[in-house]
Amino acid sequence: MTPMELDDVRVDAYMTTGVETVGPDAWVTDVVDRLKAGPQYGGLPVVDDEDHLLGFVGAIDLLEVHGDVRVESVMSRDLVVVRPEMTVKNAARVIFRTGHQFLPVVDDDRVLLGLFSNGDAVRSQIERTTPSKVQSTREMLERTHDTSIGVGEREVEVGSLIPTQREVYGDELEGRKYELQNGLAEPLIVVSHGSETLLVDGHHRAMAARRLDIDRMLAHVLTVSPEDVDELGLRRMARVGGLRSLADVEVNDYLQHPLIEKTEQ
């Protein structure tokens, strides 16, 4: 992807859809209960019966407000919105300049289509690095095995992955868990060879997903036909290392390293 193409990435490619909303006639007490349940954005867009955006109600709007008050009387009406065709780059600028953590995405009729957050902006940048990794992995496999490699994108089962890396680091696992929980993790890179799926890039993400009981993850899948290649070098490496599943990957806790000291609690 060229720099010009990167600048053309649109908001609707990364915005969050299926956003939870509330109507203007709802009682404040109902909104408080829903906010306690922990909506992702700390508030709710207010829409009419046809999903036209009317406002937003957040925790700050409900301070010292009685529960028997309608949402329309306390919601914020002066909103900054973006269009789905706006570039991610420009939307990120708006977020930065306004100090908002997210922006409603609306069409020309002000129908709510989704929300674009600073997390979505970060995710768009992270995922852009993946195509170059995929291409370099593909070229390496094609040179090594003198065969053509197909590339696609789909979800894979975390439990069926065969690792090619013996060790991951505990501190980095915590970072990957945060990314997964907030939708910031880039896809894995795997090689499909017959009935086996070899994990090439993303061991920390896959291990973090395993700890979070996430069964499936999005992956760039490089497909090698067993008819063209009997055994992959990656598969031999995994076999020699005794790696059959993610359960065989060792987690190295850097805090236990002999050169790292911990203060007494």
TrEMBL record:
Coiled-coil regions listed: none
Domain of life, source organism: Archaea
Keywords: CBS domain
Any single Pfam family the record assigns to this protein: CBS
Gene3D superfamilies: CBS-domain, Conserved hypothetical protein from pyrococcus furiosus pfu- 392566-001, ParB domain
SMART domains recorded: CBS, ParB
InterPro entries: CBS_dom (IPR000644), CBS_dom_sf (IPR046342), Diverse_CBS-Domain (IPR051257), ParB/Sulfiredoxin_sf (IPR036086), ParB_N (IPR003115)
Designated name of the protein: CBS/parB domain protein
Species: Haloferax volcanii (strain ATCC 29605 / DSM 3757 / JCM 8879 / NBRC 14742 / NCIMB 2012 / VKM B-1768 / DS2) (Halobacterium volcanii)
Taxonomy of the source species: Archaea, Methanobacteriati, Methanobacteriota, Stenosarchaea group, Halobacteria
